[in-house]
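Handout, section 4.2: multi-component inputs.
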Amino acid sequence: MPRFVRYLAPLVAFLALAGLLYKGLSLDPRKVPSPLIDKPAPAFSLTRLKQPEATLGSTDLKGKVTLFNVWATWCVACRSEHPVLMQLAESGKVSIYGLNYKDNRADAKRWLLRYGDPYLANAFDGDGRVGIDWGVYGTPETFIVDQQGIIRHKHIGPLTQEAVRDEILPLIEKLEASSG
Amino acid sequence: MKFLRIVLVSLGLAWAGAGLAGMEEFDFTGTVDEDQFKELIAEIRCLVCQNQSLSDSDAELAHDLRQEVYDLMQQGQDNTQIIDFMVTRYGDFVLYSPPVKPSTYLLWYGPFVLLAIGILFLIKTVRQRSRQTEDGFSEQEQARLKAILGDEADGDNKA
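Output:
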């Protein structure tokens, strides 16, 4: 038995290390877990992109499950996620609000005319202060906020069909079911 | 020679540029202490280019966060409050030295555990060696040796 252990121990140690490193290969260091998950959405109140006289704030995100998408016209990856958002909006499965982050009002409005507007409304965050409060560091970012205004999920990087099918929609269904 | 000169000058310029990030338009004549500011932005990681601190990075977000740190200092917030501000938004990962708490115990104490295991192993090996007799065989081995040699001696006698 001791001899058996003696030969096996290095093998076990090697396999453990190899397993750890293998796991590390599939982790993306750019995806930093948000400390905001399961916390109330940071309070804000900004002017709306299309109606500068009206405001959109964190209170508008309450009462229903919402998808809060941070985007900008200078963000290349936002362009690739746009059709996915359009499709999601057409499905009517969730209310989509946007945070137009460090952008130019005219450019943003033109972009929505050109590629379509999946948002119920956009908050215009010209100087990016609200973005900082939400811990935004790489657009596009997408948050799911529940009926109580608690952040339940953060997706960093462009939304894909797969992410919507496997993460976003199941979570939205779960959240909607839990409130009854 | 002309080529070499161009290369050297561009290298020099690149070097000079590298030192410039971080110190843009801030005014330190007021209440904000420049050394404290520099210390803070060197401790906070820029999440866009993760191997750079706020003071090294030229990313858009780093500009904004330097401004944020400056503004918070101007409002009279101390280092802990400002670090707290960053951590509640971006998580512990923004800090170059992560706090000691249950989820980081492995990170902080893991190396010492490994060191302890190594020392135990070393002590065990040294003890085992010292148990060996002068001719390089342990008592166990000597007994085995005797048995083998004894067998052979018997065999020889028979033949």
